[in-house]
From TrEMBL:
Highest rank taxon of the organism: Eukaryota
Gene: Pcbp3_0
MF (Gene Ontology): RNA binding
Keyword Transport: no
Domain K Homology: 7-77, 93-164
Protein name: PCBP3 protein
Organism of provenance: Ceyx cyanopectus
Coiled-coil segments: none
Keyword annotations of the record: Repeat, RNA-binding
PANTHER family: KH DOMAIN CONTAINING RNA BINDING PROTEIN
Entry keyword annotation includes RNA-binding: yes
Lineage of the organism: Eukaryota, Metazoa, Chordata, Craniata, Vertebrata
SMART domains with a match to the protein in the record: KH
Amino acid sequence: ESKVSEGGLNVTLTIRLLMHGKVRGSLQKGETVKKMREESGARINISEGNCPERIVTITGPTDAIFKAFAMIAYKFEEDITNSMSNSTATSKPPVTLRLVVPASQCGSLIGKGGSKIKEIRESTGAQVQVAGDMLPNSTERAVTISGTPDAIIQCVKQICVVMLE
């Protein structure tokens, strides 16, 4: 089932993000998500429920996932820019995404003595933090990525590579 594409092995991957209510609002508008699904070719699902955070599940071939992530990162940047248009802040806060990663894969993501995560930070320019504790009632940890949309996209690509390995 795996086809080789320009990005190497084209396997189906699932990446999940945690989103706060106010951030999610911009994705909640059906049109935005519909457009992202169509343009990226990835399946994007937002969990239901009244909890403060929802899980956004993105599934598809790696290239579709990267496209979907790029669209989400740029959408968040746009939201930050829009929310700042009437604020007095001078510096723009970075875009921040929180991935949900199985704890079993966090070791390879961090690398021996933190070498892998350091390499990802240096090569992408994004800030990456792996939570020390698991998420409540879960075998997964949150991985927080922040930076420019481009840095985030590069960072997600490298995290996917690690997870695929």
